[in-house]
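Exercise 7.
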Amino acid sequence: MELDYDLVVVGAGTAGIPCAAEAAHGGARVLLVEKDHRVGGTLHISGGHMAAAGTRRQAERGIADSVEAHLADILRISGGTVREDLASAVVRNAAETVDWLDGLGFRFAPETPRIIYGHEPYTTARTYYGVDEAASILEVYERVLADATATGRLDLWKNAPVIELLTAGGRVTGVTVLRDGQDVRVRARHVVLATGGFAAEPELFLELEGAPLVSAAHPTSTGDGILLARELDAGIQGAGSFLPSFGGLPHPTTPGKASWSDRQLLVAAERPPVEIYVDRTGHRWVAEDEPSIDTKERALTRIPDMTFWTVFDDAMLESTRSGRPLVVGWTPEDLRAQAGVRVGVHAAATLEELAGQTGIDAGGLVATAARYNAAVAAGSDPDFGRVHLPLPLATPPFYAIRNHAISLVTFAGLDVDESLRVRRADGEPIAGLYAVGEVIGAAATCGQSFCSGMLVTPAITFGRLLGRRLAQS
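Solution. The predicted structure, written as C-alpha cells, is:
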C-alpha cells in the first residue's frame, strides 16, 4: 500500500503535535504517526517547565523582562556551550508560545512565573508550568489535535512505528510505517522527526552520552529518530555534553531505572541538608549545602559509578518533621517503614552495620562521620566548606538512601541547521528531512547545563514554526 501526504510528522509528543497541527491549519495534508498507543510522549511524566520573557502573564504581575536578559541568562548558565543560533530563535518566539497556550485555556500553576531552583536559577521569574505539570500541556494539545483533525487535513495513526525513511536522488521522500502488521509506504514532500530522546535505551545512551544509564525517562524514549536518520549518515550534535540530574532513588521493581515521583529533595535552596553524602568508599565528595546544583551535578559525574548515599541519623530525620521532607511525600514514619523494605533504603543500629547493608566501606564511613561531627562541633567544615552544620551524625538508628545520577533527558541528538534541516556528518543538509524536540539533543538549547524551560519551550516553539513554514513550501 502507498499513500501520499505533503508532510509526515514522526512522533506525537511535545514537538510533533504542534508541528502537525500548524501545518494542517496552514493548508498541508499531514500524517502524524505515533508508535505508542497514546499521544503525548514525555508529557505524561515531565514537569512541563517552559520559559519565556515578555509574556502577558509577566506583564500582569509587573515583572520586567526581555529577550536579551533571557538569552544572557542562558549563555551564563550554559557557560556559552549552547547553540546560540537556536537558543536565540527560541527566546525571540517563546513569549508567543506561552501566550498561545494561555489563549487556549492553559491552566497555569498560580505561582508562575517564578524562579526555579532545581537547577541553576534565572535572574528573573520567567518559568511557567501547569497545575498538573506537563499534563496541563497535553490537556491543551488534545483540543489542538481535535481542531486540526476537523480541518480534514490531519490524520493521526497510533500504534504505528516508522521503520524506514524513504529516499530518492539523495532526498527523503517519505517513510515506511508498520501499521496493523503491514508495511505502509507513505510518500511526502517533507518528513519531520519529533521522536524524542533516548534515555530509555541503555546501549545507545552509552554510545552517545558515554555514561551508564539509570533512567527515569518515558519508556518510548528509545532514540528511534536518531537510528532512522543515521541510516542516511546524519550527524550528531551535543556529544560530550552529558550532565545528569542530581540523584534519584532506585526504582522499587526495575533495575537500571530510577523513581522520580518519590525522589529525595537534594537542592539546598529547597531544603537545607541535615544529612551527609558519601560515595562507595564512605567519603564525602561535595558540600551538601552547595547552592549551585550545577556544581553538585558536575561533582557527581566524578565519583565511582555516579552513585552515592545520603546518610543521616534519627535526630536528623526527626528534625525534618516541621519542614521539607527528605523524600517527596514521605513523613519520618514513612521513611522508617520503608527501611529494609524499599530497595536502596536502609537502617541500622550502628554505622558499621549500615555500611554492611549498603556496600559502603565501613572504615571510610566511620572515619567520615567522626570528621564531620568534629566539623559540626567546631562550626566549620575544613574539607568542603559546608556552612549549614545543624546536627552531628550520632543518634541511632542510622539511615542511608542510595542515589544515582539519573537521566530524564539526553543531551546528544541529530545535528540540524538554523532551519531545523537534519545535516549529514559532513554538514550538508539532507533534503526533505527535519527534526524538532529532544531528538536534536538538549545541548542544542541548554548546552552542557539545565536551563529552566529550555527543553519544552524549544520543542513547542520550533514545532509550531516549522509546521507553519513547511505548509507553505
